[in-house]
Each structure stands twice: as C-alpha cells, then as structure tokens.
C-alpha cells in the first residue's frame, strides 16, 4: 500500500487494536494521543525524521518495544503509522482549515462533549522532541493560540487554572478553541520552519593527490591545484 493512501476505517481499527493490545508496551500511545503527537511534528518549527519520533510512539524508555509476531506484521504496523502521519501532513498542506483533530466524545449530563486531553498530551510530547525551538510562538503576539494545548496537555499548570480543565464543559470549549486555532498555528510556522538537512553531492569525481591534475598541466594534483587547496 502506498504511503499517500489514507487509512480506511478497517485499517484505523487495526492500528488502534494493536496499540491497545498486550503486545504494545504499557505506555504506548493511543490513537488520539498519537494523532496529537504527529500533528505537533507535522506543523512544528523543524522537520523530525521518523527514525527519531517513531520510538516515542511506544513509550519513553528504550525498553518500550512492541512484540511483533514477525517482520511482516512490523512492516504492516509501521506502514499504518506512516500513512496516519501523511494524512496529517497532506491535510495541512492542501486544506489546513479542514483539519480535524482526533478528539474523543463522552456524555455529560445529557450532552455529548469532546475531550481533547489525550490529544494534547500527544501534541505536548511532540513539542518535547524540540522544546527550545517552540519558544518563538510562546513569545509571539499569537501565544494565546497555544493556551488550550498548554492547559490540556502540560504536565503541570497553575492551581488557579485547574477549573478550566476539570469542568467538562469548559474543557469542551477549550477543545473547540484548539481546533479553531490549529490552522493559524500551522501558518505561523510555515515561513519559519527550518529546512530538512540535505546531503551535498559531489558532482565531479574526487581527484587523488597522486593523480594527474585535471587542469591539464601534466603535473600531479598535489604539486599543482592540490597545493593551492592545501594552502
């Protein structure tokens, strides 16, 4: 399956079931937490390679490793995670205002409310991969856009802020604010995002020190332009 194919409902459930199974580490992310985590990586200030962020999906420790049945299953699950990530990337690139964070719903006093806490925990984990690089938005004139993520996702908040997240209706409103803020947070980082690291490719073959100098002088490279380079 191509990486640009979004997950079907069946594939979504397949990944969800694996993350919740006994074969995933106890601290493995749930689907809503994973979605928040991938969103932070996708829209944040600098690219992060999968080799780095994939490990944190399973937990904080190096010993947090899933128990795949075989290589085929490992390839399958990692493919589903990468396609889940690509859904996030493509949506922001093509239609950021249509992005829908994966919040869970719950019933409270006859109302259906949304709970963004686990999603925000994941987003916070994504920011923690490059904590210092997020400073610019916290110190900018759009810092208020990050407040719902802070209130719902940070390990610790101020005591006077607790009622904002402990009341289900207020937490629901924070989740709505967060969803409305995400396109602008994405837009903030677009012109500031650091480019991915690229490898320089030598277009011409390397000249050995004892080879003839390519300038045509008939001298050894080390006695001709190689000497100039050494100087």
Automatic annotation (TrEMBL):
<feature type="region of interest" description="Disordered">
    <location>
        <begin position="206"/>
        <end position="231"/>
    </location>
</feature>
<protein>
    <submittedName>
        <fullName>UPF0149 family protein</fullName>
    </submittedName>
</protein>
<dbReference type="InterPro" id="IPR004027">
    <property type="entry name" value="SEC_C_motif"/>
</dbReference>
<dbReference type="Pfam" id="PF02810">
    <property type="entry name" value="SEC-C"/>
</dbReference>
<dbReference type="InterPro" id="IPR036255">
    <property type="entry name" value="YgfB-like_sf"/>
</dbReference>
<dbReference type="InterPro" id="IPR011978">
    <property type="entry name" value="YgfB-like"/>
</dbReference>
<dbReference type="Pfam" id="PF03695">
    <property type="entry name" value="UPF0149"/>
</dbReference>
